[in-house]
Amino acid sequence: MKLTGSQILIESLKKEGVEVIFGYPGGAVLNIYDEIYKAKFRHILVRHEQGAVHAADGYARSSGKVGVCLVTSGPGATNTVTGLATAYMDSVPLVVFTGQVPTLLIGNDAFQEADIVGITRSCTKHNYLVKDVKDLARIIKEAFFIASSGRPGPVLVDLPKNVLLDSTNFEYPENVEIRGYHPTYKGHSFQIKRALDLIYKSKRPVAYVGGGVILSDAAKELREFITTLGIPVTMTLMGLGAFPIRHPLSLGMLGMHGTFRANMAISECDLVIAIGARFDDRVTGKVDEFAPNAKIIHVDIDPTSISKNIQVDIPIVGDCKQVLKGFLKEIRANEEETEKVQGRIKPWLEQIEKWKKKHALAYDQEDVIKPQYVVEKLGELTKGEAIVATEVGQNQMWAAQFYEFNEPRTFLTSGGLGTMGYGLPAAIGAQVANPDKIVIDIAGDGSIQMNIQELATAVQYRLPVKIIILNNAYLGMVRQWQELFFDRRYSYTCMENIAPDFVKLAEAYGAAGFRVEKVKDVVPTLEKALAYDGPAMVDVIVEKFEGVYPMVPAGASLKQMLLV
Amino acid sequence: MKHTLSVLVENEFGVLSRVASLFSARGFNIESLCVAETLDPSLSLMTIVTRGDEMIMEQITKQLNKLINVIKVTDLSARKFVDRELVLIKMKATKTNRAEILRISDIFRGKVVDVSHKTLTIEVTGDEGKIAAMIELLKPLGIKEVARTGKIAMLRGAQ
Does ipTM come in above 0.90? Predict the structure, then answer.
């Protein structure tokens, strides 16, 4: 049967098991929107294309499925760039369809034309311009395969209008054959044995775990690996949720705003076991002084991540889950060595316990509400079971430090790109994927204004996301840097008296608005907002000059932490 | 250190730009780049000359392999290989230097491909050393313009 390009797109999405599209219509994609209408395909109308990509991203991160977006040509397409770059840095599987002017007009500066394939080449895993409707089904198949396999990432498919109108016989390919793309999943068994030899010889090992463990659904294997060997484990921002934060072997997060014990442990250890992490500069601090006396084992599915920033002793290219399974098989066959290593690292664990007691994450709740207190109470009220999205800055770091994540795919944050305005649309996407869970956006008064328009989306689709604004009347993280490194010259970071009335704003959008100014009102108001049957925004007026600590200044060694 | 990479890619639009932007985005330098279709018209072969220490070359090779359209990357410099470049050199020719130019061209087995009252254009092929030596000798005689194809290369023997 002959189908048009638009029909092929919808049929292919059905074949891929896509449940929902996040999108925004426009001239170049009218034909697709007509097919969506006829097919009654589920579509969430966002209020800005950037919101569509972040929402698909939140959907993907919280569910493990591929997120799908549809936008029009020109400005619709260019508005997706920040979302794509965000997803690319954090390895989130997305397929973004953009409209394009007819092939005959490409290059003519036509109305709403943008060379989006050229523009997004460096912020997508791969991208396509479909020139012939006969290639469309194959390209869609490849796009989903590339997005979700290997190290996941966003793929963009650009669809010229004439391709959407042209017809061809539709047959969705069963298999994908791409000559230049064969990700390695299974770790080399010899490398695993060599790595295990190092682990069995080590006295002060630390596992350093990143988002790769969550992406490959390896949290279960990680737990067994860590608890069987009794090795302490620290997580990156992206790795939070991979291992229960309250577990005695957990050191919490490491890096710029990591815990004292995690940063001390990584600096003093004799072996780093990096799993699905990429030695980001916010994690390593000064590269020369990162784990200076340690051998390094690095498990990663992306060969380019290995020995990029830090020279690695034993690289293992493979999927975290598969490699951990490989480790577990060897470990189970070697009980004697496992017991020996547990005994040998006892003094190391005692040392870590001392560090933990010396400087734990803490704050003093006095008269004015402390942001950490709000996050901590949120954690208690939701029993740590909510899905938490964040914006970027202090709100993000306090959420990471004080919410206490225990399960993978519950913490959604823009780790790599650091995109303000990510949280609200991501929370919306996560709520679409998880209708029965509590979804919270922990926000700042600055960040929330970057994609505030998506409140309308939440209201329209009755998505009961809860937005908790830690309102300190400043772009807090930048202010903190100005306080520490620029003699308190608060250049363009003060938002006092110029922020909108967030309660009225929420109400104007049709959501519930709350404001809290006193410590005693924090818990009751959060309770009210959480119980509210619909989207709610809580404006919490917090201490203006509270900082995020510990803090390792950019470029300093991890041991040079500012503690208060 | 200088490295010559042989990169087999899909013969599709946009692939050259992906490879080029990979180098520019990561601050790697391309000294020369040569690309054309292979016997199989669905594939192209790129010969890229670049510079970097061991760590940079490892990253370049890995990053190239990561591109979906790249099928195979070989660092020829690690093995024995032949390389050739074709160069056109336009000389300022006068009564006095014309004979000398032709003599030098002969020594390097160059070929005169164009001649006018004021110029002589020579075609020459060779490896890096030969081309460099010839240009060095021709320089004092007055080079007007040089066009080079960039290096193409292949492993020696049955590899």
Answer: no
**Mean of pLDDT values over A545-562:** 94
Q: What is the pLDDT of residue A1?
A: 81
Whether residue A265 contacts residue A232, with contact meaning beta carbons closer than 8 Å, is answered with yes
In sign, the C-alpha dihedral spanning A35, A37, A40, A41 is: positive
- Comparing alpha-carbon positions, the chain B residue that sits nearest to A179 is B71
- Helix axes A371-381 and A394-402, enclosed angle (nearest 10): 50
Q: Is A477 a catalytic residue?
A: yes
Whether B68 sits inside 8 A of A307 (CB atoms) is no
Backbone angles phi, psi at A457, to 5 degrees: -65, -50
AA identity, residue A103: T
Instruction: Give the number of other CB atoms < 10 A from CB of residue A294.
Output: 22
The pLDDT value recorded for residue A105 is: 96
Cβ of A193: how many Cβ atoms within 10 Å? Answer: 12
Q: How confident is the model at residue A521 (pLDDT cuts 50, 70, 90)?
A: very high
Residues in chain B within 8 Å Cβ distance of A178: 68
Nearest CA in chain A to B62: A304
- Going by C-alpha positions, the residue among A518, A560, A552, A511 that lies closest to residue A533 is A511
pLDDT tens for each residue of A3-16:
999 999 999 999 99
DSSP string, A15-80: HTT---EEE---GGGHHHHHHHHHHT--EEE-SSHHHHHHHHHHHHHHHSSPEEEEE-STHHHHTT
Distance in Å from the first CA to the final CA of chain B: 24
Query: Mean pLDDT across the stretch B116-137?
Result: 96
The whole-angstrom distance between B79's CA and the closest CA on chain A is: 23
CA dist., res. A54 & res. A67, Å (int): 9
